[in-house]
């Protein structure tokens, strides 16, 4: 597919500066661009690349004013990062979509499969399951008995949805993710640990994206719920009976212990850990490796460190930690001097 700068500007509401007929057929980072590529500049620290890039077209913020000659044609937009995301979505939507059911797929006779669906080789759809219209299930996906999957959801290879769980429409489940495995429930006894049956389900609402090898456990009773618009990175753990609020995002290796309620529009960096039975308010933001041992009641709270504290306080504390060896040595010298002074008084 090939587009002119003029066509692209029309799609995203931009203004062309340069050759409106400049043609592009691929995307590239600004520092790696070649002829026929479109790139973007959203961070001023990369500005020097715009004067040397070989990309044919570059998206820039409408406030950008070059300090020297730029060879590429520019398209000025209110927000270059948002514009490139919009273009990538358009590009992705134009790719031909797979359809058809492979002869090597297994669909139980009692299952229901919608229109325009693709089931790749070795897909397994269990008894009573329902697959919505336009879904794409790549090879080796397993959909358990009585599972429901909404329209236009895409599930990549080796993902597994356990029995009775529900996945909404327009979701993306990446390779190896597991929806509805048993929660980690055991009762200690004198002989060991008795398993507590996990008889609930997991519910994934619409427009959720779940990364590779991420797990959303089923509930002990009731449901573990991931609300609409949530984005989970790879290797995230959502435990039994959790509730993740709409449009919350979690980076890799976030772990949420059981029966925790996370608010809407929260943002968690990599390796954030949240204790069980906690309640997290809306729009809470946590830096990487933050530990949250209890409730966060105030909406919009920002946290860093373990246990999580105000980021400014955390950074000050980190600066002091670097000086602790010298401070400890100084403390011991002062302690020794004080003892000598007190001895002289006697």
For this entry, give a set of tags.
346 residues; UDP N-Acetylglucosamine Acyltransferase, domain 1; 3 domains; eleven-stranded parallel sheet; 16% helix
Topology:
Elements: E1 3-4, H1 5-12, E2 15-17, E3 23-24, E4 26-27, E5 37-41, E6 57-61, E7 73-77, H2 80-93, E8 100-101, E9 106-107, E10 112-113, E11 118-119, E12 124-125, E13 130-131, E14 136-137, E15 142-143, E16 148-149, E17 154-155, E18 160-161, E19 166-167, E20 172-173, E21 178-179, E22 186-189, E23 192-195, E24 201-204, E25 209-210, E26 215-216, E27 223-226, E28 231-232, E29 237-238, E30 243-244, E31 249-250, E32 255-256, E33 261-262, E34 267-268, E35 273-274, E36 279-280, E37 285-286, E38 291-292, E39 302-303, H3 311-321, H4 324-345
Model description:
There is one protein chain. This protein is an alpha/beta fold and 346 residues long. Helices cover 16% and strands 28% of the residues. The strands form six sheets. The chain has an eleven-stranded parallel beta sheet with strand order 8-11-14-17-20-25-28-31-34-37-39, with no helix packed on it. The chain is flat and about 90 Å long. The mean pLDDT is 95.
In short:
The protein is of the alpha/beta class. The chain is built from four helices and 39 strands. The protein has an eleven-stranded parallel sheet with strand order 8-11-14-17-20-25-28-31-34-37-39, with no helix packed on it. It has a ten-stranded parallel sheet with strand order 9-12-15-18-21-26-29-32-35-38, with no helix packed on it. Strands 10-13-16-19-24-27-30-33-36 form a nine-stranded parallel sheet, with no helix packed on it.
């Amino acid at each position: 597919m090939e587009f002119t700068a003029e066509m692209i500007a029309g799609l995203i509401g931009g203004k062309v500066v340069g050759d409106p007929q400049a043609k592009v057929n691929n995307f590239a980072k600004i520092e790696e661009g070649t002829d026929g590529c479109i790139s973007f500049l959203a961070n001023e620290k990369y500005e020097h690349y715009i004067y040397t890039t070989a990309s044919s077209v570059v998206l820039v913020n409408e406030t950008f004013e070059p300090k020297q000659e730029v060879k590429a044609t520019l398209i000025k937009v209110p927000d270059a990062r948002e514009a490139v995301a919009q273009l990538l979505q358009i590009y992705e939507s134009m790719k031909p979509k797979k359809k058809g059911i492979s002869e090597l797929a297994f669909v139980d006779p009692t299952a229901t499969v919608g229109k325009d669906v693709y089931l790749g080789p070795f897909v397994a759809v269990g008894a009573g399951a329902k697959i919505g219209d336009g879904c794409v299930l790549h090879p080796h996906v397993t959909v358990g008995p009585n599972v429901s999957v909404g329209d236009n959801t895409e599930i990549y290879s080796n993902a597994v949805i356990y029995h009775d769980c529900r996945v909404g429409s327009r979701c993306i489940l990446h390779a190896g993710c597991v929806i509805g495995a048993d929660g980690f429930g055991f009762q200690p006894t004198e002989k060991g640990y008795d398993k507590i049956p996990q008889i609930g389900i997991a519910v994934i609402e619409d427009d959720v994206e779940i990364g590779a090898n991420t797990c959303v456990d089923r509930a002990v009773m009731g449901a573990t719920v991931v609300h609409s618009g949530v984005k989970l990175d790879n290797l995230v753990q959502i435990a039994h009976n959790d509730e993740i609020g709409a449009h919350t995002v979690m980076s890799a290796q976030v772990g949420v212990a059981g029966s925790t309620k996370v608010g809407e529009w929260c943002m968690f960096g990599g390796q954030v850990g949240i204790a069980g039975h906690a309640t997290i308010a809306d729009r809470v933001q946590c830096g990487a490796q933050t530990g949250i041992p209890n409730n966060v009641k105030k909406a919009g709270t920002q946290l860093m460190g373990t246990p999580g504290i105000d980021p400014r306080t955390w950074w000050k504390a980190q600066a002091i930690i670097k000086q602790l060896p010298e401070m400890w040595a100084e403390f011991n010298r002062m302690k020794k001097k004080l003892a000598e002074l007190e001895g002289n008084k006697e």
